[in-house]
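Hi everyone,

Forwarding the result from last night's run.
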Amino acid sequence: MGSLEELVAFLARAVVSNPEGVEVRSWRDEEEDALIIEVHVAEGDAGHVIGRSGRTAEAIRQVAKAVAARRGGRVLVDIVA
């Protein structure tokens, strides 16, 4: 089974114009007791990943949270342009 980072990267690359410009970084935050995933996209693609009223970004977050919850963990996804 793939990692959450790979899942988030796959989802982000599916909605941007420049999939090569998507970079995903992650680390474990002990204070939050969660995996933090940062999605970096090209400046022109920020709107595609965020979507209207943040709907696309929220959908990506919800999918990641659902997978993390099934695995018994917690995840926070940040979109960075």
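The two ends are 28 Å apart (CA to CA).

Cheers,
N.
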